[in-house]
Amino acid sequence: MVIRPIEPGDEALYRELLVSLNDRDRYLRFFHSVPNIGPSEVLPFVRSRRDMIGVLAIEDGKALGAAHAFIEDDGSAEFAVEVRPDYRHHGIGGKLLATLVQKLRERGVRELIAHSLYDNSEFALIASEAQMTPESEGAGVNLWRLPI
After folding, report:
1. pTM of the prediction?
2. What pLDDT, in 10s, does the model give residues 35-86?
3. What's 109's domain CATH number?
4. Which of 17, 30, 86, 146 has the fewest CB atoms within 10 Å around its CB?
5. Are 55 and 45 in contact (CB under 8 A)?
6. How many structural domains compose the chain?
């Protein structure tokens, strides 16, 4: 498995990853229903942007997972991750997160945050293993923090 930055040419790889997620997975990732995966769901995450870092985990030409961090003006970045269902619980999410943390440190980011729904146990496992700490935001949402 190789983890590398997402590039604009990765549209098909990233779309394939999102299509592999079921409706519940997409809801947990995007906080709303995403029944169809079209260009509007893919392009913002593969374009080169100064305020975003994205990485892909790839093996045998298939995207196994992806993670993105959106850099804020206050020195923090918001993190999100998705891992192909048949590759979960193999450490891919944690490796994606570690890669992002390294890249964010290089950019001077001081804190990583993430929002997750209470029932997103898969994300909670990744976040907890990375020593992120949760706080309740109410309405069924946790805010996770990691000083970097």
Report:
1. 0.86
2. 666 667 666 777 878 899 999 999 999 999 999 999 999 999 999 899 998 9
3. 3.40.630.30
4. 86
5. no
6. 1
